[in-house]
Amino acid sequence: MSELLSGNEALARGLYEAGVTVAAGYPGTPSTEILEALSRYKDEVYCEWSPNEKVAFEVAAGAALAGARAACTMKHVGLNVAADPLMTLSYIGTRGGFVACVADDPGQHSSQNEQDTRHYARFAKIPVFEPADSGEAKELVALAFEVSERFETPVILRTTTRVSHSRGLVTRGERRTPPAVAFERDPPRYVPIPIWGRKMRVKVEERLGRLAEEASRSSANRLEWADRRLGIVAVGVAYGYVKEVFPEASVLKLSWCYPFPDALLQEFAAGVEQVLVVEELDDIVEEHVKALGVLCRGKDVVARIGELSAARLRETRARLEGRDPAAASVPLAPEAADLPGRPPVLCPGCPHRGVFHGLGKLDVVVTGDIGCYSLGVFPPLNRTDTILCMGAGVTMAHGMDRAGEPRKVVGIVGDSTFFHSGITGLLDIAYNRGGSTIIVVDNRTTAMTGHQDHPGTGRTLMGEPTGEVSIEALGRACGIRRVVTVDPYDLKATAAALKAEVEAPEPSLVVSRAPCPLHTRSRLGPPRRIDPEACVQCGSCVKLGCPAIESDAEAVRINELLCLGCGMCGQVCKLDAVRTEGEEGGHG
């Protein structure tokens, strides 16, 4: 039976059919839906949101060493966090199959950088598969596990945004019977102390050579001979664009691109007059083709930055044919071109707004982190000064503080991010006698990726109740003596607490706790309106950056369809112009 699935749903189906029994991950666009879809098979597959990608990788690795087929999921920047166990698992190898599903984000639709996971595959000397669409995504999962077990190696299955989120027909198959699980003690194989690790290193190179031979024979890579004046090496998702823009060309389709299938690449190059390599992001295959002594075109005519598309490849064709690429580009649709720019803002009723309002009253440096609250960098809040990576909101605050920054430094981190990698930073501040103030904006969910649970929510990915980890107790356990909890909807109390903690002569932890309204799907209060007779358009409410508050030269209004009734606008209005329906005066 065939069905229409996104690439992420297809990967989940592939993992299920492959007989996976353990899967762990950390949510991150564009990878999040893989584990969410796989958890629908929770009677047969154990799934978990781990605190971070390193933990998820190690959970899956442990299961694989015991003989199970196991997987972990993450986005590209998450593999940076999991890089440490990745490098050594390559040495140890696996017993049961191990596949890391890693989703890259060309174009940085929802990421702090644009990076190519294939570098990690080459760095760790392990295979990487790249599906071109949903159907191939599911099929490659089975092949990836077969290769993992036959060569006793971890495998990366890399997707990019377009494959992850677009839909295609997928044919359902039967679930493979999961292998028996029983760890077999063998320290020389599983313990990479130097005396054994050096021998593992030799085996890694031997394995890489055998994998390269297999990649040239694999059905994941195929030759499609046509007009031999131009031969295109199409990698992963680029295959579809190539078939649309260069329908007449010969194509070498690569879905198993590392180790490089040298024999296949050389056979293809010998059969065509000119070689063009089309791959998303970096020139990894192109660089290797040139190293083989093959003259080829690539990133000199194909975009290196951002997502590829058929439209962008038409520009490539124009360059190859000596035409003006701009003339070949597809202009924006008139209606899109006329739309005004709309910077991302915090949602109506978002509790984080109360924290940024309070920080706006203080002369402090604010080191931010990854999550919804990163939107505090935009006007009118303007209250985030740096963002680096998960957990760095805490550690960079400490670094600035210890460097002697004359102003007080405040680090801000979300609840899920705190559990991901903020805890160690807080421990560092306490241990090394720092002086910064750390704010955990706890909205009881991993909001930005779609409301996933984490160790503080009291519920697992499998839908089971579990203990709620206390952020305040963790802070005290780290050695922080000043720990306070605030209600961010109470602007006056929140501002006072922040001022007191920033001025304190020791480090402090502020927990700003209020659930994400989008997650709870409940109103916070009656919708507000602005009394035009009382309003003098001072802009105080507009400065909150609430999308429900609209203003122009004529008046300031509250969109009652968007307003969730948080009441913050009423608290900042000094003229009592914010009312609820039927109310004549007083604060909203």
Count of individual helical segments: 23
Q: Briefly note the structural class of the backbone.
A: alpha/beta
**Roughly what is the average pLDDT, rounded to an integer?**
94
Q: Round the Cα radius of gyration to an integer and report it.
A: 27 Å
What is the helix content? 25-40%
Low-pLDDT sequence parts? none
Gap between N and C termini: 57 Å
Give the strand line-up of the largest sheet. Answer: 3-2-4-5-7-6-12
Major pleated sheet: 7 strands, mixed
Q: Which terms summarize this structure?
A:
single chain; 588 residues; alpha/beta; 23 helices; 18% strand; globular
Please summarize what this structure is.
The chain is of the alpha/beta class and 588 residues long. Helices cover 37% and strands 18% of the residues.
Write the layout of secondary structure elements.
Blueprint: E1 2-6, H1 7-17, E2 22-25, H2 33-38, E3 46-49, H3 53-65, E4 70-75, H4 76-81, H5 83-92, E5 98-104, H6 118-124, E6 128-129, H7 134-151, E7 155-160, H8 161-165, E8 167-171, H9 187-190, H10 194-217, E9 221-224, E10 227-235, H11 238-245, E11 249-254, E12 256-258, H12 262-271, E13 275-278, H13 284-291, H14 310-320, H15 325-328, H16 334-337, H17 352-359, E14 364-367, H18 392-403, E15 408-414, H19 415-431, E16 437-442, H20 471-478, E17 482-486, H21 491-503, E18 508-513, H22 517-520, E19 528-530, E20 549-551, E21 556-558, H23 568-572, E22 578-580
Parallel strand pairs: 2-3, 2-4, 4-5, 5-7, 6-7, 10-11, 10-13, 14-15, 15-16, 16-18, 17-18
Antiparallel strand pairs: 1-8, 6-12, 9-11, 19-22, 20-21
Helix pairs in contact: 1-7, 3-5, 10-12, 11-14, 17-21, 18-19, 19-20
